[in-house]
Amino acid sequence: MALIDCKGVSLGYEGSIVAKDLNFRVEKGDYLCIVGENGSGKSTLVKSVLGLIETHSGHLHMGDGLKKREIGYLPQQNEAQKDFPASVYEVVLSGCLASKKGVFFSKAQKQLAAESMEKLDITELKDRCYRELSGGQQQRVLLARALCATKKLLLLDEPVTGLDPVVTADFYRIIKKINREYGITVIMVSHDLYSAVNYATHILHMKRDGSFFGTVGEYLGSDVYKAFSGGERNA
C-alpha cells in the first residue's frame, strides 16, 4: 500500500489555482524529489500533505496507517527561527511533542532524541545554544528533530537553501543514508535538479500546465526534463 496516493488533485490558495491534475504515488522506501518552476505549487503541495490546506479537487490519501502528525517535517527556515534561544537538545526533543502524553517527556522520548542526535552526529552539540550554530549545524539539528516525529516519512521543503556547496553535499549524503539505511521514505522539494536526479528514486516535476511523475530514469528521458535542463544529461 502506498504511503501517499494522489489522484487528480488541484491545489491553490486565496482563490487561485496553482497546480492542476496532480497524479503520483509514494511507496514505502521511496525518495521523491519535487522540482519545477517557481509558483508551480511545490510548497502548496507540501502544506496539503501536512493537512494545513485543503485540496480544491481530487484525492490525496495516506495509507499504511500514516497519520499527518507522524510526518517528520523540515520547513524552510526564516531569520527569526534561526535565532531561536534554546539548546540543541531542547530543539531535538521538541520533535516528540506530537506524541507527548502528559506534562513531561517520557524516558523513551528522551532516548529517541539522543538516538536522533547520534544519527546526525551532533551529540557533542547537545548543550550548545541553537542560535549560535552554523547554518549546516542548524539543519542537522532540525533534521534530528524531524526524525523524532516519524518512523515512516520525512518531508523536506528546500532544506539546503543558503548552505554552502560542501555543507549541501554533506546534507544530501545524510538524507540518502536515512532513506536507505533506516528505511525512512523521503519527499523533498528542491531547486537543485542535479542532486535530485542523482539521489532520488522518483521525480515529481510540477508545472503550471501539468506535471510529470516517474522514476529518475523515466524523467531523464522525458521532454519535460530536456526542456527544463536545457538538454543537459546532468542539470
Overview of this structure, please?
β1 and β2 form a beta hairpin. The chain has about 240 residues and is of the alpha/beta class. The protein starts with a strand and ends in a 6-residue tail after the last helix. The chain has nine helices and nine strands. The relative contact order is 0.19. α4 crosses α5 (about 135-150). Strands 5-6-7-3-8-9 form a six-stranded mixed sheet, with helices on both faces.
Quick recap:
The chain is an alpha/beta fold. It has helices spanning 42-49, 79-82, 88-93, 107-119, 135-148, 165-181, 193-199, 216-220, 223-229, and strands at 4-13, 16-26, 31-36, 57-62, 71-74, 153-157, 185-189, 202-207, 210-215. The chain is globular, with a radius of gyration of 18 Å.
- What's the overall geometry? globular
What level of helicity do the residues show? 25-40%
- Overall pLDDT confidence: 89
How many strands, which pairing sense, and closed or not: the largest β-sheet? Answer: 6 strands, mixed
What's the order of the H and E elements? Answer: EEEHEEHHHHEHEHEEHH
Question: How many DSSP helices?
Answer: 9
Strand portion, in percent?
Answer: 25-35%
Distance between the termini: 33 Å
